[in-house]
Amino acid sequence: MNKQMNIAIDGPAGAGKSTVAKLVAEQLSFLYIDTGAMYRALTYAALKEGVELTNGQALNHLLNGLTITLQHEKSGVSVLLNDEDVTEVIRNKDVTANVSLVSSHESVRLEMVERQRTLADKGHAVLDGRDIGTFVLPDAKLKVFLTASVEERARRRYEEHQAKGIVSDLEQLKNDIAKRDELDSTREFAPLKQAADAIVIDTTTLSIPEVADSIIELAKERAI
């Protein structure tokens, strides 16, 4: 693929965006940009510093003093916050419970979007998030919207927690995911929304490789 191609993968929590995006980027030798990890890093910093999460101005001030780096290695993507490796800690329950609130502030999203666009401008890239195709990269060559039932998304999250030794309740996860869907899709600025020209893939009964293969084929078609 000689011409620059950016692939936007959007969808709700637990739809498989990050896992699929990583695999697609790896198979196509594209840069993978985990936009969700960037918001999680800010949320972690805000909780650590005691910044009021409902105060968008304070959060944006904090963000302006942070360097968030997505470091690509053979083992995957590490997230560095001012040179501190926060790859694992930004996935904890406190961050997960508050990242939607932090990311809902317009000033925060505008700053993050500028950083994400700068990264994407460097070459072929795969970005996953909730507003990539509608706001971050509205001119992306390929836009995909992944979805799955709440039950399936909760089951996946439950299995992830079990694999990491995290105690969780399946019913509570269902409630948490449904709540996050509501928060993400109803926020005033750049909400979770399917782009009009996005291709929808229901991942409920599909494996990660199957979803990735579908996107890779679409990317190859768009590159012709």
From TrEMBL:
UniProt keyword Cytoplasm, yes or no: yes
Protein keywords? ATP-binding, Cytoplasm, Kinase, Nucleotide-binding, Transferase
Q: Which GO terms describe its biological process?
A: nucleobase-containing small molecule interconversion; pyrimidine nucleotide metabolic process
UniProt GO MF annotations: ATP binding; CMP kinase activity; dCMP kinase activity
Q: Does the keyword Nucleotide-binding apply?
A: yes
- Which Pfam family, any one of them, does this sequence belong to? Cytidylate_kin
Domain Cytidylate kinase, residue spans: 7-220
User: GO terms for CC?
Assistant: cytosol
* Residues that, per the record, bind ATP: 11-19
- The signal peptide here is none
Alphabetized PANTHER family for the sequence: CYTIDYLATE KINASE (PTHR21299:SF2), CYTIDYLATE KINASE/PANTOATE-BETA-ALANINE LIGASE (PTHR21299)
Q: What is this protein called?
A: Cytidylate kinase
Q: Which species does the entry assign this protein to?
A: Halalkalibacter akibai (strain ATCC 43226 / DSM 21942 / CIP 109018 / JCM 9157 / 1139) (Bacillus akibai)
Lineage at the top is: Bacteria, Bacillati, Bacillota, Bacilli, Bacillales
